Amino acid sequence: MQDAGAPRGQGPSAAHGGALGRPRVLLLTYALASVEFSCLFMQFSVLPYLSRSLGLDSVTFGYLQTSFGLLQLLGGPVFGRFADQRGARAAFTVSFLAASVLYLLLTAACSPALPGVALLFASRLPALFMHILPAAQMVVADLSAPEERPAALGRLGLCFGIGIILGSLLGGTLSAAYGIQCPPFVAFVANLLGAVLSFTCIPASTKGAGAHSQAAPAGGPRAGVFDLKAISRLLLQPGVLPVFLVKVVSGFPSGLFMVMFSIISMDFFRLEAAQAGYLTSFFGILQMALMSSVFHFCLLMPGLVFSLCTLNVVTDSILTKAVSASDTGTMLGLCATVQPLTRTLGPTVGGLLYRSFGVSVFGHVQFAVNFLVLLVLWRQPLPHKTDKVR
Question: Residue 292: is it exposed, middle or buried by C-beta count within 10 angstroms (0-12/13-18/19+)?
Fold first, then answer.
């Protein structure tokens, strides 16, 4: 029975968010997401330069990027199922612990006394369990009413912008001042702190039995974490597959450019690590402007940031409304496979396009793909509003 004091559509645990209360849990979720994004972009800002210092060429660096994307691609849907069944606390803690191992191995790879190349590739393995974004999205979706969900998920885009700015600035600045091993070590300490905060402050479960939530089938056997049929069946629910395909196809060109950006920064613009960090921070500032007003968006936003931010917020909101509350984590895990898919295919496809046609080809591909998606949606628009089946 629903708690009388809970907000509409929220169960007791979802409404109060455990001991901290719902507003503080949401605030902590945004803070933890910002920390993880900052650490991620610290890694991105130094990884190309570390790879080059270890003697890796662009092809081998592409393999390194591909391995990271492939592992996240494989782990995303299963991790989403794990988050649904084991709860938000377990999902956050496991993600931060996995990230801590990654950054520790990356720090060790910077030592001349250790086998750097082997440790560098070994540092990609924990990516299988690194899924802070879908964990944070699940908490936000669980603790937000459907009409508030787009705005709540949009704030995670603000966290992403903060991560780009702080991570890129810190990565370039710390590596220039204290050596290339400093950014991954700082990220290691930050993720250990994130694991502690997750285990002590995030509620065990944020799932509620809201009035507008679709309950899990009563009396049926509970699907396991590794039940791929239970994961794939979500894509077959009404209104889900078309939105998911739009998310994949339209987001791929933007992700392709972001995957190749580190190589473009070094080879085309001839930037050092600190300079590349400043340029990436500029993207973060533009992305944060998206969260302020439509006027700022019209003045500042390039199509790249639009596709990475607005498209993700809209499609994630539609997709989480289309499934039951007990499956939001699994659906967000599926959504989280889009970027790893880009990181898996991007180094090969992007490298071929870059060598053959130059930097401008990424803009041409972005325009062509999104124009075709626009024509398809013009002829067969998506449902105006997708809500959970009662």
Answer: exposed
